[in-house]
Amino acid sequence: MTALVAAAKKEGVLNVITLPTDWANYGTIMKDFTAKYGIKINDANPEGSSGQEITAVEQLKGQSRAPDVVDVGPSFAVEGATDHLWAPYEVATWSNIPADAKDPNGDWYADYGGYVAIGYNPAKVKVAPTSFASLTNPAYKNEIGLNNSPTTAGAAFAAVYAAALANGGSFSNIEPGIKYFAHLKQIGNFVPTAVGGPTTVQNGTTPILIWWDYLLESEVKSVIPGFKIVIPSDASYASYYDQAISATAPDPAAARLWEEYLYSTTGQNLWLQGYTRPIELATLVANGTVDKTAEAALPPAPSGALTFPSSAQSATAETVVTQNWPTQVGG
Amino acid sequence: MAENTAQAVVPEVLTSGARPSPVSTSIRGALRWLGIVPFGVYVALGLAAPTIAIAVAAFRNSSTGAFTASNFNTALKGTYLLGLKTSLLLSIATAIVPGIFGLLLAYAIYTAKRGNVLRQVVVTASGVFANFGGVPLAFLFIATLSTTGIVTGWIKDIFSVDIWNHGFTLYNTSGVFIVYMYFQIPLMVLVILPALEGLRPAWREAAQNMGAGTWQYWRYVGGPVLLPSFLGCLLLLFGSAFSAYATAEALTGGTIALTPIQIGALLNGNVLAGQENLGYALGLTMIVIIAIVMVIYTILQRRAARWLR
């Protein structure tokens, strides 16, 4: 570790990509890392997507401004591993990461995530929604929104997956989720705008918003006091983002130090303070090192172990949503 | 003999003055070409290189990189075929309807006196509105005409009618159509106005002198002169709608299939991984359609130019 810190300090720079400062507490995390190690962080394209991260790794290869580390959605982590874009690395706390949340080879490893949740503004929504089934209440006419299109946004895609689980579907069968939203649209409850967020909750376009619990907390609740967030009782769908180190990282030591920092107790608790659930949360709780205030601020997690769709199941679901969303929900 | 010498010299001077030597011709020719070098470089880097890159990538397998036509098999089927059809229909509709409204508006401006304040305001405003688009435009409509929009509220207050309960919606193809009018009509005004101004008053006077009424003037003189320009402008509107992306995406959340949105999902999205080359295949299909449109546009422009000199 001492040697790694020395090597990283010698590089002096870390290139990260697509990390918004108001997302999962990344603003504080980056500031704290720089303060601790004196390593400057360049954050390229903060509002970019996972797809753009992969493109940047491929196209900036060999340049000093190429990304050192990425934070990508699961399917992109797998794609990158298939294309040999990642340098395998196992952080010191590797054994605390659940086996189905990391690549056995060490190419990628889950970092933080959350549950699909229903957020609502009690000032406009009189009957509190509790589940996907409850959202079909005619009282919610023209009130329910997603953050974006499920064909482009991970959160909206996850919402369709969760709705599938609530309606007799499974990780291998997302179709009931699409049918569910088609039904919501047909009865007039679903507003299919792709700009769902704090503004559309505030101005009443979508007083009910289905999104990640941590984004509802950090982006909506922060501007709308009294905003309520509930994890639907009939579907608990969690998804985690993944860390990976670029195989062609211009600052390889700083990249590895960054990962060690993120998976340290400090790093994990900082993610928790950003309303996300860090992957080693169970260990933190067991060891008593968890930030209790931050943990209490989260909507209570459903019981039972976390399960994730396999990459093959996700890939099938993505194709089904791409093909069927416009034909079944559109019109 | 002396005279002969003199005579022999004079023509030589004359010829070298009138007809430059081959060397200076080539320099002047080279200089003439030098002028368009920046433009040539611009076209090569900004248009030719990306087009070739897309064309090559469209025929490659996303993971292996091997050459294949399978991307087009997918691109011309299912939701992607539907996307192309919807894009084409939407673009045709949002070319023709705003084309007609824009023409009428431009004609009203054309008949107004030059220097008229209203005319200048309309032309300037058209320039601004024609360039307004993207997510801000979608949000503008959501803020005014969505269920809780300001205008929706006014209509509710004044006429006691909630338009959303009577089938009005912004979030489908007809909603996108309404929103596109916002920038398509001003664009039509801007591009058709020069053609209208090319109609010389003398032609109308000549027609009237021969006893033509207003209808006959437009049927036999004004209309035929204007038609190529009008059709050319429609094609321009078609291209503008065909390539529009962010507005429709923000408004409909992908519930209507449009090719540019699908390309965005394949190249930039957070959901579909590893299908970039399918996106390139869709891109190439769009390029082919636009190329056909541009050829027709050029032919029409050439016809129109005959009268506008």
What percent of the residues of chain A sit in helical stretches (DSSP H or I)?
25-40%
Task: List segments of chain B where confidence is low: pLDDT < 50 over at least 5 consecutive residues.
Answer: 1-17
Q: Using only CA atoms, what is the Rg of chain B?
A: 27 Å
Q: Please give the largest β-sheet of chain A.
A: 8 strands, mixed
Radius of gyration of chain A: 20 Å
Number of helices of chain B: 14
What is the count of structural domains of chain A? 2
- Provide the CATH superfamily of the largest domain in chain A: Periplasmic binding protein-like II
| Residue-averaged pLDDT of chain A | 92
Helix content of chain B: over 70%
Care to count the β-strands of chain B?
0
Number of β-strand runs of chain A:
10
Q: What structural category arises from helix and sheet content of chain A?
A: alpha+beta
Continuous helix count of chain A: 13
| Cα separation of the termini of chain B | 55 Å
Distance from N terminus to C terminus of chain A (CA atoms, Å) equals 58 Å
Instruction: Write down the secondary-structure element order of chain B.
Output: HHHHHHHHHHHHHH
CATH class of the largest domain in chain B: Mainly Alpha
The CATH topology of the largest domain in chain A corresponds to D-Maltodextrin-Binding Protein, domain 2
